[in-house]
Amino acid sequence: MRRTMMFALMAVFAVPGIALAADAAAGGGEGWIKPFAAIAAGIGFGLAAGLCGLGQGRAAGSAVDAMARQPGNTNRIQTAMILGLAFIESLVLFVFVIAVILLFVKS
Amino acid sequence: MEIIDHPPILHFSGIPDHVTYTWIAMLIIIAVSFFATRKLELVPRGAQNFMELVLDQFHQILDEVIGAGGRRYLPLIGTLGLFILVSNLMGLVPGLVAPTANLNTTAACALIVFFTYHVIGVRKQGALNYLKHFAGPVPGPLKPLMFVIEIISHLARPLSLSLRLFGNMVGGHILIAIFFFMMGFDGLLGWALTGSLGGLLIGAPGALVSAVFVVGFLMPLKILVAFLQAFIFCMLTMIYITGALEEAEHEAQHAPAGHH
């Protein structure tokens, strides 16, 4: 069941690419890269953002726990938390840069 | 990136916009510093008061992170922090360009940090000892492997420093550009202005809601991000410098005992 759904999903994703590829093939050139680039950028950035949300949620939750237990150390915990969030976020930003390159840079 | 290409107020042909606006950011910082230190008073007022507050913050963070002797690096950290903060905030003003929304500017800052902390480490410890500590506290046969891994991780530092700042700025700009595009004359507002029923029922409230969302939520978020990214850049610079210094102390502690 799951495999069937996956194939259906892949088919749905692939159809516009193939359809546009047919158009582009008529005109010649590499126009088929563009739709696949858009799909890749969307899926990749969605995955990155979602997993980053999980990671940052864990980090922020632990930090709030720590602050509740040790109210005296709030400042240092906050600094460490912000640094950790920045590191997690930077991975998403790598994906963002790749997505922007995929979408906007002419191949 | 045609979606965020808007004509800035100042544009000299032949000079890239981020260079022009880097000079403007420099002029802003120089002007504020000049007016703050023109008539120094014992009881500060106005600009002097403000800049003393900023300086106190920098001193506090430097003492906290690097510890004793941290204030030596105030010129580097303070300049980087103020420049990045002013550049980030310039991106929020319509018609101005944020110099940090260009990879060249952020890569320049990150490369300065990269070379500076290596130079600091080498000066503190000598080139050979500094290189030796890239191998880390692992047994002999593993040292070459560790060395390669450390080199890669050190090379990744300027990459992540520059891409983090650049990605945050450009991401915010694209987000706001998309919202303005969506609610502008080509989008919801245009739909409402056609006078059709759907336009009046959905387009007009939609345009209002997105305008309120942008002004009430995205703009404050971008201000927060501007401060946060400047803070993170300085913080990471200080941590890298601390790392380069700490290796020296580590060596001094362990060399007489003959562990390595």
Order of helices and strands of chain B: HHHHHHHH
Q: What's the structural domain tally of chain B?
A: 1
On the 0-100 scale, what is the average pLDDT of chain A?
81
Number of strands of chain B: 0
Report low-confidence residues of chain B grouped into runs of 5 or more. Answer: 255-260
Cα(first) to Cα(last) distance of chain A is 38 Å
DSSP, total strands of chain A? 0
Radius of gyration of chain A: 21 Å
Q: Which assembly state applies to the chains in this document?
A: heterodimer
Shape category of chain B: globular
List keywords for this structure.
heterodimer, A: 107 residues, mainly alpha, F1FO ATP Synthase, elongated, B: 260 residues, 74% helix, globular, disordered C terminus
Question: What order do the helices and strands come in, and which of them pair?
Answer:
The complex is a heterodimer of chains A (107) and B (260).
Chain A: H1 2-27, H2 33-69, H3 74-104
Chain B: H1 17-37, H2 46-65, H3 74-90, H4 103-125, H5 127-132, H6 143-183, H7 188-193, H8 197-254
Describe what you observe in this structure.
- The complex is a heterodimer of chains A (107) and B (260).
- Chain A has 107 residues and is mainly α.
- Chain A has a single domain (2-104), classed as F1FO ATP Synthase.
- Chain A contains three helices and no strands.
- Chain A has helices at residues 2-27, 33-69, 74-104.
- Chain A is elongated, with a radius of gyration of 21 Å.
- The mean pLDDT of chain A is 81.
- Chain B starts with 16 loop residues before the first helix and ends in a 6-residue tail after the last helix.
- Chain B has helices at residues 17-37, 46-65, 74-90, 103-125, 127-132, 143-183, 188-193, 197-254.
- The radius of gyration of chain B is 24 Å and the shape is globular.
- Chain B is 74% helix and 0% strand.
- With 260 residues, chain B is mainly alpha-helical.
- Chain B has one domain (2-123, 158-254).
- In chain B, helix 4 (103-125) packs parallel to helix 8.
